[in-house]
Amino acid sequence: MLKLVESESSDWNRFVLENGSGFLQSWEWGEFQEAVGRRVFRYRIDLPGDNGQSVARFTAIYDSFPFGRRYSYIPMGPIVSIDGDRRNKFGVAVSAIRESITREGLVLARLEPPAGFNREDLSRDDLLQLGLVPARARSPQHTSVVDLIKSSDELLADMKQKTRYNIRLAEKREVNVRQADPSDLRAFTKDIDRFQQLLAETAGRDRFHTHESDYYRRMLQVLAPKDGHDLSVRLMLADFEGQTLAAAVLAQFGDTMTYLHGASSSQHREVMAPYLLHWQAMLWAKEVGLSRYDFWGVAPEDSAADHSWSGLTRFKLGFGGQRESNLGTWELPGSKFWYGAYKITKRFF
């Protein structure tokens, strides 16, 4: 039975973490999405005889299509409990989502089975049999994760020789890495402005699209570290001779630090500021007890040399992480007419 969760429960984030999902399904991420104007609903699915224990939970973020139509996005979800038959539980969750699509007149629901599923739990064929349609990735399907349980010396030894060299070079050139301080509102605002200027420069140079500037500002404000919150987002910056050369937005949730957004200047590239920025971020994450540093998106292992992410992937893999993959993004169609219209429209945009 699908139930709407209307008030925060102490075990929401625990369920997310214990069952293989991540920060995009956290309670706090939903609050941030609400802060940027999206409608957010959280659901749990309980089955009779389960003593009130959820077999699945998920946060659904609602957004708009043209002509007054809507769709829902379930990032890193739905999440099903790890005990028992996970394939069957995922099927139950998909059936409940399908019913909500029909009831609410949605064009589709976009799902992302979390990385916690292995091939024995759930396969591509299983998803196709459930009526899901493969879609363009919304969240990264492939990533690289550094194991922070290792010692600092082991982490350095695992890196590519060029990455180690560039870290040492940045240290020698006295690049300074720091965290923006949300408690100092004036300085924090200036640091966010610096990040956004660098992001605009990076997007223009590397030809990628960004969110509206207010999106990042709200993220850093709403998700700034707070007592009692499981998800926190931090801004780290690398300065050289009084100029900010690189910045990274990092999300801390559970045992993982995730690199969400990054930017760098075209000036003083010879001092290798981004390399030291990530190394210092790893050391900080390690110091506070985290065990994973997720670079949040690399090109597929078999991708062509001219893949749009090839340069970024070389940079990230240089830090010695291990590749991890999930099942990707899938769509659950609603009305045949509106889903067909949506597919036709996509061809032109």
Automatic annotation (TrEMBL):
UniProt KW keywords: Acyltransferase, Cell shape, Cell wall biogenesis/degradation, Peptidoglycan synthesis, Transferase
TM regions (residue ranges): none
GO MF entry, a single one: aminoacyltransferase activity
Keyword Cell wall biogenesis/degradation in annotation: yes
Matching Pfam families: FemAB
SUPFAM superfamilies on file: Acyl-CoA N-acyltransferases (Nat) (SSF55729)
GO biological process, one term: peptidoglycan biosynthetic process
Domain of life of the native organism: Bacteria
Gene3D superfamilies given in the database record: 3.40.630.30
Family assignment from sequence similarity: Belongs to the FemABX family.
Protein name: BioF2-like acetyltransferase domain-containing protein
